[in-house]
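Methods — Computational structure assignment.
A single polypeptide chain was analysed. Its primary sequence is given first, followed by the predicted tertiary structure written as structure tokens.
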Amino acid sequence: MRLGPGLLVTAAFIGPGTITTASVAGANFGFALLWTLLFSVLATILLQSMAARLGVATGQDLAQALRAHIDTPLFKALAAFLVISAIGIGSAAYEAGNFSGASMGLIAILPQINAQLWTPLIAFFSAILLYSGKHKLVENALILLVMLMSLVFISTLVMAAPAIHEILAGFIPSIPKSSITTVLALVGTTIVPYNLFLHSGVLAARHDSNSDKRKLIKQTNLDTSLSITLGGVITLAILSTASVAFFGTDAGKISAANMAMQLEPLLGGAAHYFFAIGLFSAGLTSAITAPLAGAYAVCGMLGWSNDMANIRFKLVALVILVFGGVVASLGLDPVAVIIFAQAANGLLLPIVTTYLIWLVNQQTVMGAYTNSTLLNLITLPVLLLIFGLSGYKLISLIF
């Protein structure tokens, strides 16, 4: 089989935010929260497999399926508002962080070049890829970046050489004092609502009514499992490296921006460049996939084409990209916009997940490819966690 759509999801969720969250988790709590990462990866595989199966079985992405199968006008209007605002605007808000992360990586590698040049150059490169409308070109570029990112972060893990028994102990569930926010952040940075639109959209765009759907679904499930597991290994590598380097020390505030420099005493001068390359790759992959996800969501809800070569699809993706590029280039503080995006996504995630599970259980939608009873039972605790996570996130943002 050939890996592909699943790696786009990996490219999307391993961004500067994931690097920061995993670094903070390792620095503050050692290996104690690895069980959270394991749960998040398994839950993501479960949900993304459903979204992918929807695209394969119906030829519709998640947004198109919502538009087609919600009959009540009020609920359809509410779904459209939530998807367009939370996914569209949310993708644009996070795009600024993606550009900033990629720029930080390049600044660390080439400090002699004017730092203000990097964001426009990264935005320009991303725009060319997206405007090409060539799915294969975009996919190959992202796969290359994911492979580079994997090599970099797994290499830093090998250099850090954590004790295997300490890693294994981290998979035993525990919640250290003051860790609940980090637990929720690890889950939230892995289970991302816009990736459900991205994954279903990519596969829906490839839909062929004459294909062997059952065989294709099996291939897609394997692709999803392997790709997202790779993303989990990358996050594990970042968390473990931070744990070895900083846990139990007074290293101060850890972030994606300063971790590369602070790793030098442990890993030597090469660590600075290794981590910076990884940060650049993570920022760039997310900078390309966020506009894609937003375009699938917005175009699907508005009844527009989900073909990457379609001019409306391109324009929506470019608007999201340009917004993020402008915020990052001007040095504006995107905190207020990101808080809105987090609040909207906190509201959207349980709703979208519930609708997704509802859709993949409808024979009128999925035909012979509905969820099994066992799969629904496995999904129930994941759904409960998502409702709890979203409720906590919204309450914390309000109060």
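Note: The CA atoms of residues 89 and 341 lie 7 Å apart.
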